[in-house]
Amino acid sequence: MIDLADIAQRLRRVTVEVTDAGQALGCGVLWPPGWIVTNAHVVRRPHQSVRLVDGRRLDGALVARDAEADLALLRLAGAGMPTAPVAGPDSARVGALVVAIGHPLGVRGAVTAGIIHAIAPMVPGGPACILADMRLAPGNSGGPLADAAGRVLGLNAMVVGRLALAIPMTRVRSFVRAAGVEGV
Amino acid sequence: MDGVLMFSNELAAAVERAGRAVVGVNARPRLGSTGVHWRSGLIVTADHAVQVDDDVTVTCPDGRVVTATVAGRDPAIDVAILKLNAPEVAVADVADSDAIRVGHIVMALGHGPRASWGIVSAMGEGGGARSAAGPLFHLDLTLYPGFSGGPLVDVQGRVVGMNTSGPGRHLHVALPAAAVNRVVDEFLRRGRIPRAHLGVATQPVRLPEELRRGLDRDQPTAVIVVDVQPESPAARAGLLIGDIIVSLGGTPITGPTDLKTVLRPDRVGETLTASVLRGGQARELLVIVGERPRRSDAR
Asked: What is the DSSP letter of B236?
């Protein structure tokens, strides 16, 4: 039987820490193979230091950045990295359990659980976001929001009141495709 | 399927099921509230979020907006009942709220659907929560803006209460479904929600030790009558200014809110025994609970 601890452990392997001069800026998700997706506000330089769960430090080269969508794509130098499993489109349901991994306030690999609060645009007519009833903090940015099977639903991007807002993977996928990555 | 995923699917299914009976209530400027299709044609919502009596609309789960009328209010427990003609909106599956225990996982729903989850952290009064309805569910969950009047549901999506943060906004409490049922039943019986009424104004007083001993009671406080309205049920029962009410209908009265707890809408017309102290002497008076005159009846 799989429990939350297993899901958290699997997610930690596909979550990286984006750092700058030893200081943690946020997270990123190993997806698609050989790449990292994260928030634009997490990335500061053309080359960003990335730390894997096993402690390896690698170079992430900034390939695409969209400040408005708050998404960034880093190319990863190195091989043998796992890739995050991604949930199918439209699989997020209000009320379903969700799990987030991140480094909130410097706590490395912290797991947070909650439920999906709503799937709604932040502004009328805007793109749909996943709002989760869970407490996230600075350091969760760019990290995965996953379902109860450990599949990534979105990237945690900001805290709105007491809600966590994640960018759905469908939008992340379009961004990655637009950046010229094939096969996603 | 593994346990966590199964539980997650059950929660999502519960939201979907319960959400069919959840409506948006548009009865105050800016922020709407939430309502529950409690019985066929009747929406239950939070009274404090119904700030107008006319031009109230309800947003159905399918997004249609229909007109509703305010049919009854019980501000003492923060319940309003709206009448609605929308037969296609499902009626909520209301469960026995007495089965809920501290620690049970519950969800609060808003129109949309929107959801938050947590546990029942305590039952009873305190923390400034209104107590006129009797014990409340204190919740370890977030009632987001607009959640007032929405359902508290169990993990199967059955309604066990109505959420109300009250005008204070920082309380996370729910009125148990049993208390809401009492109001709805009373409404169906009389066609309105009567407001029980004694016609007294009271203030809390400390009961001196010797008086308590004489009464064989351990309550530290009671209420003192500071005004009796002429022709009121209290006046007819012979209550006088200066009387100290220590119990009513067998319920100890330790403060003015205890009076509200006893004076539920379904108590109108009942004869209750009031235990009072007058000049240090205990005596019992019989009070027939009246109905507060409606505004339209006045004058």
From this structure: H
pTM attached to this predicted model: 0.82
Which residues in chain A have their CB less than 8 angstroms from residue B151's CB? none
Query: Do A125 and A165 contact (CB within 8 A), yes or no?
Result: no
Mean pLDDT, rounded, for B224-236: 96
The radius of gyration of chain A's CA atoms, rounded to the nearest angstrom, is 15
Q: Is A83 exposed, middle or buried (0-12, 13-18, 19+ CB in 10 A)?
A: middle
- Please give the angle made by the CA atoms of B255, B256 and B261, to the nearest 5 degrees: 100
User: Quick check: A47 pLDDT over 90?
Assistant: yes
CA-CA distance, A170 to A36, in Å (whole number)?
15
ipTM value > 0.90: no
Give the count of Cβ contacts less than 8 A between chain A and B. 77
**Exposure string over B83-116, b if 16+ CB within 10 A, otherwise e:** ebebeebeebbbbebeebeeeeebbbbbbbbbbb
3-state SS class at B273: strand
To probe the interface with A, which of B1, B7, B8, B163 has the most A CB atoms within 10 Å? B8
Q: How far is A19 from chain B, CA to nearest CA, in Å?
A: 33
